[in-house]
Amino acid sequence: MIKNYFKIAVRNLLKYKSYAIINLLGLSIGMASVILIMLYVNFETSFDIYNKNADRIYRVTREWFNSDGSTSIYFGFVAPPIAPLFKNDFEQVEQAVRIAQAGIANLKYQDKIYQAEMLSADPEVFDVFTFPFIQGDPASALQIPNGLVLTQSTAQKIFGNKNPLHQILILPVTKDIQIDLIVTGIINDPPVNSHFHFEALNSMVGLRQFYGEEEFSNWGSNNYATYILLKEGANVENINRAIPQFLIKHLGDNANEWNTLHLQPLKNIHLHSHLDAEFEPNGNIIYVYILSIIAVIILMLACVNFINLATARSTTRVKEIGIKKVVGANRRQIIVQFLGETFILSIMSLLIAIGILVILRPVIQNFFGFTILENNVTGLILPVISLSVIVGLFAGSYPAFYMAQFPPLLILRAFQQSRTLKSSLRKALVISQFSISIILMICLGVVFEQLNYCKNKDLGFDKEQLLNLPANREMIDNYEAFKARLMQNPNIAGVTASKRVPSAGLADNSEATVYFDKKEMTLGFRLANVRVNYDFLQVYGIKLAAGRDFDQTYATDNGYAFILNETAVQKIGWKSPSEALDQPMTYGGLRGQIIGVIKDFHYESFHKSIAPFMLFIAPDDFNTITIKLAPQTHNTFQETAAFLKSIWQEYLPNDTFHYTFLNDRYNRLYNTEQKQGNLLTLFSLLAIFISCLGLLGLVSFFTQRKTKEIGIRKALGASIPGIILYLTSSYIKWIVMANIIAFPVAWYAMNKWLQNFAYHVNMKMWVYLVAAATVLLIAMLSVSWQVIRAATANPVEALRYE
Amino acid sequence: MIKLVDVEKYYANKFIKTWVLRNINLTIHEGDFVSIMGPSGAGKSTLLHIIGMLDDMSGGEYYFMDEPVHKLNEKKRTAFHQQYIGFVFQAYHLIDELTVYENLETPLLYKKVKTAERKSMIADMLDRFNIVAKKDLFPNQLSGGQQQLVAVARALIINPKIILADEPTGNLNSKQGLEIMEMLKQLNKEGTTIIQVTHDENKAAFGNRIIHLADGYVEKEEQHG
Ligand SMILES: Nc1ncnc2c1ncn2[C@@H]1O[C@H](COP(=O)(O)OP(=O)(O)OP(=O)(O)O)[C@@H](O)[C@H]1O
Ligand SMILES: [Mg+2]
After folding, report:
1. A108 and A248 housed in the same domain
2. Residue B11: nearest ligand to its CA?
3. Does A288 lie in the same domain as A169?
4. Residue A20 contacts B where some CB pair is shorter than 8 Å
């Protein structure tokens, strides 16, 4: 019996090849999308679970409040005293460790410099996180102040086949100071699915000796990611409840009014944490949801194609079903047969889908920015097989039940009665398919419009032609000479340096006071700062609203002069920028005067409203040099870059020369949106493709059935355009209806999405119209071939065909 | 074996009822060989479809082996098809996607006949109808007459208690047609009930009863032997 079913199924597939191809193509694309998203979700949800105690690990985060109680800033990093105090104050905390970013370290070994992404960690870090040691002893590796733990690949890079243990690496810290680090441990590379990565770990004990006790008791230095490991069976709620008391004990009675601490489960960090300071940009659970929904939608579109084509074409199977019933088949057997056919199709599609994914794997990893891990793949075998079963059931059930209820006598009758009812279902399905395609197209349009806006809108300063060079200690000491050399080159229009550059986020702040109404007043909001060097405004093209720029000829400008932005001036309460001029102000430990007010510009991404901030000169405290190229340098860029490199290497012969364009850094702020845009492009194209495939199938089927009618109409004098219109008018109507459904849905969704941006485009009607027109055009193009062929056929041929 | 009481059939088309069968009262006993005759459009095929449980009646009662067919569910009807009824369509109706061999096999599959037995039954049938050479061909590779032979063979293969044949010899040459009629006669002698529709007086004469239909009424009935 099975053999009989199988034979009929295969012969049917071969007989109606185009129909089989439409279904196979649609279903395999749908399945490939779903498997891909499964892999992606699997990856995104696997972050940090490599830690044996992941369930008991929490990160301490810190939130500051404005005077009105709203959140001012929310950091994933906290102050250094917190970890030891947690261990001391809370009996349920088994271990608490700090990890601080040390940036790219230039490690010198036998006169060669190796760069490594370095973190500084407390010696007990291996009690909390699971980093298996290949060599060395986890308990003691970071106890020595100059101990250094390397990942295996870094050790391999530096030492090759030599035994790395107990080797010495030299870390230059300032011009005169360098530290000998001793390799005390080699660990496996941390997994990709970890919320932080590093190539080297140095000891917090050493850092403490270097910075001194003052830094380590400073509640304002929020640079230390702090993780606690709870004792087994401990309840995190108990600690949460005790936090207000903890803060009062250590920060005074009103501590809870202006800040608080939170405990964040380790496993939630990657998908749920988007704080103002994070190790790396995290994933987003919403993104995971959206992608899952889209993948399911794509698969459903393909199933709908199958259902539509199967029911439309059921007339061709009526005879077979009727005969089988007459010779003794019951309804269940017919259902089993048709479901079986769908399963065959579904399994074939699955195999094709897997093939597609295997071939496209490298492209996919790049495009989606995630890694397909082997253990994720094996974990998916069962879900993927059930996927093909589910698809078989979902796509196959309706046609199977629908066909099984055909009375045998239908063979003998013109197949009329049940048509109208079924075609209305089909119509609804096609309309919803196209609605989805149009919605995706509109989303795509809006996302790219917003991206375009973000990248091209005037930021309030000139971000073009700016190069950033990372500066280390040695460079800081040579900065003035370096700058003087560069300025001799006519292709270089300006040089400055700063602690942070626009696009980097306003991470630093201090307490500030100003005189307002003749009283000294502490600011009730967070006033961020950027430490800069002279010429900062000139190089960045930032305009003054009042006052003057920092000037090297005024001795007081170094540390006793502040420049505020307009937002800060407004928030303080001054009516105009000029009112702020010459006002005394304190900031952190600094006491000085406001010498200028700059016009607002977008220092951070468009996601954020412009924040109040201020600039002051800190000649020795910077880590980035910014170079403005002269306008004509477009063609001479290579030459200028070579010049920069040669000068750079005069000062730092051992250092690699490396620059970034500020423009690129700005564009990277919208990486997530760019990725969303790319995915939307992919999926909306797939959706349109699958929908058109289905439409093509339906149209070619119905057009074929109308061949005779078309012949007669033409014999009676109908024109070719008339016939084409007659054949396509109902499909055009369907797509128009799809638009009516799609517009409000897309509008709602995109309105929500745009709320992520403090500055965003207004949705324009043309995006909607273009989406509608595109989908209509693509749909009509895809059916035109069939329709035109039918319409232009010789009427005699058409009549003979029947 | 078959009892029709006041059976009627009409097609309701919006406001007009088109009557196809009226007032049909008919009893057919086990072992009967009934020929139905009448002009084109008289309702012969319709009557045969109703008897074969392929079509619903508009009114009246129908008993098949004392079971009220008008009240039976589909499951029961399927069981009758599997066990008792062999049907030959006027338009042959072979499954286009299956070869001659596979077409013959289909009823046996539904009847769950074992493989070995199935093979010998099909071989026997192919032999009896002289179509062994055609067994791997598809219906569209056969002539009309050959298709009709296969259709008859397929009806006979389950050894039905009753054979319903709608012009089983319509497309055959007279020699083949007579051979088929002889075969039916032989089966009838062995106890199979047969109802055939035919336009041909000679072939009608193979039956022991001839029922004349006209405009949906039973016009007259002749009894033979
Ligand atoms: N679906 C239908 N709707 C309306 N009338 C129908 C339908 N099917 C059959 N008829 C009518 O029923 C009548 C009887 O048809 P039937 O096929 O039983 O005739 P017949 O006696 O077998 O004719 P022939 O000798 O040509 O095969 C015909 O007049 C036909 O037009
Ligand atoms: Mg007939």
Report:
1. yes
2. 1
3. no
4. no
